[in-house]
Sequence to fold (475 residues):
Amino acid sequence: MTAKEKNSEMVDLEVAVELSGVDKWFSILQVLHDVNLTVRCGEKVVVCGPSGSGKSTMIRCINYLEKHQKGRIVVNGTELTDNRKVIDRVRQDVGMVFQNFNLYPHLTVLENCTLAPRWVKGVARKDAEAVARAYLERVRIPDKADFYPSQLSGGQQQRAAIARSLCMNPKIMLFDEPTSALDPELVREVLDTMAQLASDGMTMVCVTHEMGFARQVADRVVFMDAGRIIETAPPEEFFSNPRESRTKAFLSQILH
Amino acid sequence: MDFAYILDALPDLMTGLKMTLIVSFLAIVLSCLIGLLGAVLRTGGIKPLQYAVTAYVEFIRGTPYLVQIFFIFYGLPSLGLRFSIFWSGVIALTAWASAFQIENFRAGLAAVGRGMHDASASLGLKRWQHSIFIILPLATRAALPSAMNTIVATVKNSAYLQAIGLVELTFVAVDRIAYDFRAIEMFASICVIYLICVFTISGFGYMVERRLSRPFGGR
Fold:
């Protein structure tokens, strides 16, 4: 192996997620057009754009909740194919938090957090519970472990969902509009949890309209419209000096 | 109303009730299992099975129950399928109840949102694990009220089986009336007995429902 090859391999290892030339259709409707995006390990990328622009679809492709039809998606060095083993391996590395929390309503918060570690990773119940309680502590709801999701506020539910994801020890976290379903006064606590996670060095891809969060946490902001990535820039540049007219139009609509 | 006569007939009625309960119990258990399986097949990806289950449900819902009983007891033997009165009764009642339980469980499965699938997939749960730990309990809870209705109807519809000579509660009553002409006593008695059975079952159903729905409020 030459030094150059070695070097390129090291660069590859630093790449957490790479989408190249990704196209996706829902039957005849093309929702992603030639999407190219590279997320490096430890990087925090915020994805924004008008509704229907393909933001959610794009991040759902990263853990194969949606199947792309063209292009390559490489996650932690593994290229996504429709092979079950490949999908399972990628999903082990990727955690996801949803707009509607998607906690299991018939299980307690603790059971929500331990189900996957026990059954997917074969962790013993006691150990899984210890890990879960540690993460619940970290998202500041240790006292809610034995409650059912419906007994929690929206913000607490979303933090429980974040803890559930973290229990699988993912290397990359995807957030799909994590605060959009929350009452305004509960948004802060979830964003704080995410900011804390970011400062711990987690690789994060967040679809969100919280521009304050983007400014504070993001390394890069990606703007999408009509299934295409229109513009990618560091937050200061993105907000103060957007290049594309569509980005300007979008920002003028959401920044009051 | 001659209560002494009812008392005298009670042992006979109890024999009939025993048969009613046995046939109903078998039909309820079998129809719930078939209902769950049918609902899974009907919503599953295998087209021919999907059509077969749909056709079955439409056939049962579209034909009179009494005709189905006669079809099984009088019709099937000419195709070489001969069952005793008892098993004909169990099959007919199960066949009828299954169609409705399939629909109940299908509604239950539909009530489990797409979000649960996303959560399980992103956590890496296998399909069977998601089915057993998530879909089954949630779908059962959602299907429970209508499934309880069908269970109650199953008990009541066991009365039709007197038409093929199954010695169940209604048969015993009709049989005694043919001898003693005490129609009001007999029909009043079996009405009360059916009511007791139905109230017991639906009371049990409400209890289970309340217990299961406790943790997740209005959902």
About this structure: Chain A touches chain B through 29 residues (CB under 8 Å). The longest strand of chain A covers residues 15-26.
